[in-house]
Amino acid sequence: MLRTVTATRYVTPLREGGSLPGLMEADDLGTYVVKYVGAGQGRKTLIAEIICAGIARALSLPVPELVLVDVDPLLGRSEPDEEVQDLLNSSAGLNLGMDFLPGALGFDPLAHQVDATLASTVLWFDALVGNVDRSWRNPNLLMWHRELWLIDHGATLVFHHAWPRAQSWITKPYDVNGHVLSEMATATVEPELSDEQIRSALDDVPDVWLTDEPGFDGPDALRAAYVQQLIGRRDR
Predict the structure, then answer these.
(1) Where in the sequence is the domain holding 20, given as residue range(s)?
(2) pLDDT at 52
(3) pTM for the whole thing?
C-alpha cells in the first residue's frame, strides 16, 4: 500500500499541468508534486497514475515514488489565486503526490539517448496501458541524475471513462508512430508481468476512489474489472 503523508505547506502551483498540480511539503519532510481529487479530470486520473506506477515498477521502469497526501483546505487560505483556493477547498482528504525530483530536466530526444532495451520496454508498457501522452511534443519523461524517469500517466486506461464499452479497449491497436522513443526502441523485449503484479498495482488504489462507480458492487468488484482489462490486453 502507498504511504500516507499529511501536507504541511502549499508551495506553488505548477501551471504546465492541465489539472493544476501543486508543489507541497509534507510532515515526512518530503516535497511532492500533488494532483488533486477535486481537479477537473477527477479521481480517475489519480487511479490511472497509481495503477500505471505499480505496473511500471513491476517492469523495473523508473517512476518517482507515489504517496497519498492528506490535504487540509485551510492550507490554501493565504494563496492569492482563487482558482487554487477553490481547488484545495474541493480536495479535502486524500490526494496523490509524486516525489519531487529537484533539478530534473525534461527529456529531449535530440539531446538524450536511451538504451534500446529500456526504450523498447517503455514502448511496450505504454502500449499496454494505452498511453497517448508520450509524444515528441509532450514526452512526459524526465532526465534526473542522467537516468530516465517516467511521469504523468493520468491519460491512460481510458476505458474507465466508459465502462459499458470497456471490452473494446482490450484489442485496440496502439499507434507507435508518434511515440517519442519509437526510433530508439529497436530491441526485441518480452517483459514479464504476472497477474499478481497487476492485482498488486490495484491494491494501492484507495477504496474511497473506487466507490460509487455505476454498475459495480463496491471497490473490490471494480478492482477486479481493472485487472481483467489489463490481463486481457497483456495477453493480446
Answers:
(1) 4-99
(2) 98
(3) 0.96
